[in-house]
């Protein structure tokens, strides 16, 4: 596993957790920048991991001890993501599709002067 792959793993789960939990509170705002996202999640190893990626070869391999640690973190974060999903009040499927379609039709007709 490389540092780049690891950063992608650690970006995906917090973003997913944020989508499930924070979107309900923030009204749709999603942050996909790992540095800013980590201001909320406060994962202490993220700054070092990003620094290693920025200063070394992008595809440098991690040591076995690092891989074991990050596998444990991945599992822990997956559990948090699943918990957030299970406790979410968001619907399983989008429910505003007809309203969105009506809005788009009205905007387009308005632009045409109809």
Protein model, in words:
- The chain is mainly α.
- The chain has 5 helices and no strands.
- It has helices at residues 3-26, 34-41, 46-55, 64-87, 97-111.
- α1 crosses α3 (46-55).
Oligomer: single chain
| Strand runs, count | 0
Order of helices and strands: HHHHH
Shape: elongated
Indicate the mean pLDDT: 79
As for the number of domains, it is: 1
Q: Strand pairing plus helix content: what structural class?
A: mainly alpha
The low-pLDDT segments are none
Strand content: under 5%
* Rounded radius of gyration (Å): 19 Å
Helix content: over 70%
Outline the biggest β-sheet.
none
Number of helices: 5
Summarize the structure.
The protein is mainly alpha-helical. The chain has 5 helices and no strands.
What distinguishing features does this structure have?
mainly alpha; 114 residues
List the helices and strands and how they pair.
Elements: H1 3-26, H2 34-41, H3 46-55, H4 64-87, H5 97-111
Helix pairs in contact: 1-2, 1-3, 1-4
